[in-house]
């Protein structure tokens, strides 16, 4: 049984930080509303579905947030303002290059005037300097907002759409987050940790498809891109096309779990075409997101021109 | 229905990197076997339970890996060799202090002899220098091994125990990972991504309790510490005591989800006592893991003396 999106919002409490995020959004958007700056909303990372009120366990979607974090860097490079809506602790643009203790190995202690200071080793300083330059150059155009659970995400997404609706065709919404299709309504959740003495069955409900009100009611004039991730190649394109028919948005980017870093398919109403890195490019550290964003920016501009 | 631990290992394929990890373990242990160095195995972070073979979705346990990563630093400070067995991408000792883009804000670009170099800002250089010093001083005594799924974890844990069994009472095993109590056997998993058109029910099985063979067969002479995390205070101590009776290991550290950063209870066969940070200490950034590790080291030494 699916509830409607209106029921979902009526029955699910809003996240504690929503009002704070709305203020951040308003201040950010206000800076660009009287310019011709293009804006992209990127959602990134997986949503959790708690199975207990006092949450110890949850159902999660596989996503480190690579697609979203990498794409954010390329959109900033293309001079977009970026609203990066990401799962808390998933990858962020720029810092994604420096995860874990490997980064500590790039640092060295030096003594200057008998005070300790810390430097990036000469071997790594070029790479780090470049990333840091890009970060500092673009951070004024980057707003980062976080979610954890599915309901945090759905509340935040609606507020983001309300905040950008005035930007109309200048805005892209790039839905790269791995959003759960299933959830457990608050009134069906266990209050405390499920005892580990019995094997439970978890009964999930379908999440209402908010892409429908998003495209039709919240931001009808913006450029909306959704992703379709499958593991079975045979159903990929037909499912992407089905999504386009159901929601009538601008574009579906279709990809297979195993090859998603090398190849994606752009599916529009009229056609589909493949973007692909060669094995050589992949080996050299090229990122498919560069192709995705470059292609998308061209499509966005064409589409804006057609709209006027 | 619970399967036995023997059945679990017989029916679940071993992780691809297990043999590689065994070599790393052997080389690490060999360096300490003819010394009197004390060794601790720390498990950290949550295990995943895939619900599909080509995994897009999984059931996860809440854990960023704070307890384990922080404890590893204090054990290194206490001169232990540390085998840190952690969930891929969960927190690691030392680098845990530098997560996300906040760390990029601690860096500045400088130009020396017309080449770019990158430095930690003077404001943060003391803190970073101290952490970096501790990291460099102790990294030879730190071995890091990763897992993701529940079955990766169970295979790796057994191999680690086999590798350290010769250390006998010099070894502590500190089981801080949040290990799933439930799983889906490989033959009951869905091959491809479950279609999002129907609400599924997930039927879970109980995971066999490997603490039993661990204590009784794999490392009967080592000091074994398990954790008990609950959300309901009323059942905490009784459950901890039950675990001690069932597995006859050395110590259970019991904690409540909401207060786990401020308070834990050490539960042994004979008594239980509380370790607690004051509100003031907590506010000043003190970590309860310092108390846990200091207490544990005293207990370990007493216990080694008694054993001889």
UniProtKB/TrEMBL annotation, chains A, B:
Molecular functions (GO terms): catalytic activity
Superkingdom of the source species: Eukaryota
A Gene Ontology BP annotation from the UniProt entry: coenzyme A biosynthetic process
Start and end residues of each DNA/pantothenate metabolism flavoprotein C-terminal domain: 166-290
Sequence similarity: Belongs to the PPC synthetase family.
PANTHER family, per database record: CORNICHON-RELATED (PTHR12290)
Name by which UniProt lists this protein: DNA/pantothenate metabolism flavoprotein C-terminal domain-containing protein
Lineage of source species: Eukaryota, Metazoa, Ecdysozoa, Arthropoda, Hexapoda
């Amino acid at each position: 049984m699916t509830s409607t999106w209106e029921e979902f919002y009526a029955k699910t409490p809003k996240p504690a930080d929503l009002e704070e995020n709305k203020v951040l959004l308003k201040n950010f958007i206000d800076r660009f509303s009287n310019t011709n700056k293009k804006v992209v909303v990127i959602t990134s990372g997986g949503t959790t579905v708690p199975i207990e009120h006092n949450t110890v366990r949850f159902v999660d979607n596989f996503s480190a947030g690579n697609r979203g974090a990498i794409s954010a860097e390329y959109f900033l490079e293309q001079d977009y303002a970026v609203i990066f809506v990401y799962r808390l602790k998933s990858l962020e643009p720029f810092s994604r290059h420096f995860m874990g203790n490997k980064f500590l190995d790039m640092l060295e202690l030096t003594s200057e005037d008998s005070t300790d200071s810390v430097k990036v080793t000469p071997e790594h300083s070029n790479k780090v300097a470049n990333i840091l330059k890009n970060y500092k150059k673009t951070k004024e155009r980057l707003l980062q907002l976080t979610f954890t659970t599915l309901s945090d995400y759905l509340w935040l997404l609606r507020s983001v759409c309300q905040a950008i609706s005035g930007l109309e065709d200048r805005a892209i919404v790039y839905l790269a987050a791995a959003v759960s299709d299933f959830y457990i309504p608050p009134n069906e959740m266990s209050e405390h940790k499920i005892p580990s003495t019995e094997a439970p069955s978890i009964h999930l409900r379908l999440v209402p498809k908010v892409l429908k009100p998003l495209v039709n009611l919240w931001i009808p004039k913006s450029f909306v891109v959704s992703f379709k991730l499958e593991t079975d190649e045979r159903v990929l394109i037909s499912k992407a096309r089905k999504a386009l028919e159901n929601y009538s948005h601008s574009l579906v980017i279709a990809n297979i779990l195993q090859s998603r870093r090398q190849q994606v398919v752009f599916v529009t109403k009229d056609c589909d075409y493949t973007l692909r890195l060669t094995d050589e490019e992949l080996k050299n550290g090229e990122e498919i997101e560069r192709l995705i964003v470059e292609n998308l920016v061209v499509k966005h501009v064409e589409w804006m021109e057609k709209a006027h």
